[in-house]
DNA sequence: CTTGACCTTCCCACGATGGGAAGCCTCACT
DNA sequence: AGTGAGGCTTCCCATCGTGGGAAGGTCAAG
């Protein structure tokens, strides 16, 4: 099976399959005489596992752990659960941050006339943050590390 | 005022101040004879504006627009409001995605015994996604908690 | 005048992904 | 058997915002 076919069957782009191989997330694929990578159905199975985990927001590092446990027939489900729970906590932290931003901005937008005049409470708040919003200020807690994540 | 002092006063790291200058987000700073950048209080003001906007999750591109409007005394507040509202929509889209992930994972975690045995519904779902996780209804959630005993 | 803390530029790294070029390989159709 | 399209290979570059670090110049306190 070509990389293109494995890509279609798994939902992982060919670029990413090569990347995962290069970074050691997945073992090096077999090669045909031509140099083409050759994938088995079980390889595709693994790729779909990865794809699904990515869809759930796991990082490649986390997927590495999950894959190890997946392959380990003597694993303890507690280990899997711990990783998943840690990821949920992480997701909820990010959700809370985004909600805080949205709430603060929502208040400001509600206060903005949105007409042809230049007076704008949104700009005013960016200039001089007021703490009279229904949401605590963002500048207090260590949000910096959590912010830049896409 | 040195870049270090401007950094402390604005909450923007010196690295990022140089980066913003380099990418044209902020104008080139004045230089002393020594080559050191020199910042005025109004520069610091601008940096705090940027910092605040970053904390609210605006991208640098969006901040560029906001800065233009900020400087434009004849701006229309509708323009600011439009940008802010678009950003809120974007935030809420991301929140919805994350919540979807967290909900799915939450259901799986609830179904996982988390003990020493290898059987794990989390791994099973990654392997072969079931579609009953997307809408964690009361019944499924309740059953999920009842389904595992330890 | 020395010393340590600061500043300068320049390069590199991250994480996950995509774009694209140059050069082979394969398959199906003439 | 030839040929053309499209797939594969590797390699390099870009993203976005941020930090690390090296090599070298500057400032201020002792």
* Model regions low in confidence, pLDDT < 50 over at least 5 residues of chain A: 135-150
The share of residues in helices of chain A is: 55-70%
Termini separation of chain A (Å)?
33 Å
Strand content of chain A: under 5%
Task: Give me the Rg of chain A, rounded.
Answer: 23 Å
Query: Structural class of the helix and strand makeup of chain A?
Result: mainly alpha
- Average pLDDT for all residues of chain A: 88
Can you count the beta strands of chain A? 2
Total domain modules of chain A: 2
Specify which chain pair forms the largest interface.
A-B, 57 and 56 residues
Q: What's the tally of helices of chain A?
A: 7
- What profile does the largest beta sheet of chain A have? 2 strands, antiparallel
**Order of adjacent strands in the largest pleated sheet of chain A:** 1-2
Categorize the overall geometry of chain A: elongated
Order of helices and strands of chain A: HHEEHHHHH
Oligomeric state, counting identical vs distinct chains: homodimer
Could you describe the 3D structure shown?
Two copies of one chain form a homodimer. Chain A has two domains: 3-58, Multidrug-efflux Transporter Regulator, Chain: A, Domain 2 (Orthogonal Bundle); 90-147, no CATH class. Chain A has helices at residues 3-10, 14-22, 41-55, 60-71, 77-111, 121-127, 144-147; strands at residues 30-31, 37-38. The first copy, chain A, is elongated. In chain A, strands 1-2 form a two-stranded antiparallel ribbon. Mean pLDDT of chain A is 88; it is low at 135-150. In chain A, α1 packs across α3. Chain A has seven helices and two strands; from the N terminus they run ααββααααα. Chain A is an all-alpha fold and 150 residues long. The first copy, chain A, starts with a helix and ends with a helix. Chains A and B meet through α3, α4, α5 and α6 of A and α3, α4, α5 and α6 of B. Chain A binds a DNA duplex (30 and 30 nucleotides) through residues 2-4, 13-16, 18-19, 34-37, 54, 59-61, 144, 147-148, 150.
């Amino acid at each position: 099976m070509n990389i293109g076919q494995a890509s279609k069957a798994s939902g992982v782009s060919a670029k990413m399959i090569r990347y995962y191989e290069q970074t050691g997330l997945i073992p090096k694929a077999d090669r045909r005489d031509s140099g083409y990578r050759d994938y088995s159905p079980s390889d595709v199975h693994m790729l779909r596992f990865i794809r699904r985990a990515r869809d759930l927001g796991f990082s490649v590092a986390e997927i590495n752990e999950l894959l190890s446990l997946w392959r380990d027939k003597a694993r303890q489900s507690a280990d899997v659960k711990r990783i998943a729970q840690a990821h949920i906590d992480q997701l909820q932290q990010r959700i809370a941050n985004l909600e805080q931003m949205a709430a603060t901005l929502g208040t400001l937008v509600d206060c903005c006339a949105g007409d042809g005049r230049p007076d704008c409470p949104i700009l005013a708040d960016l200039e001089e943050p007021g703490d009279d919003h229904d949401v605590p200020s963002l500048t207090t807690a260590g949000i910096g590390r959590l912010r830049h994540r896409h």
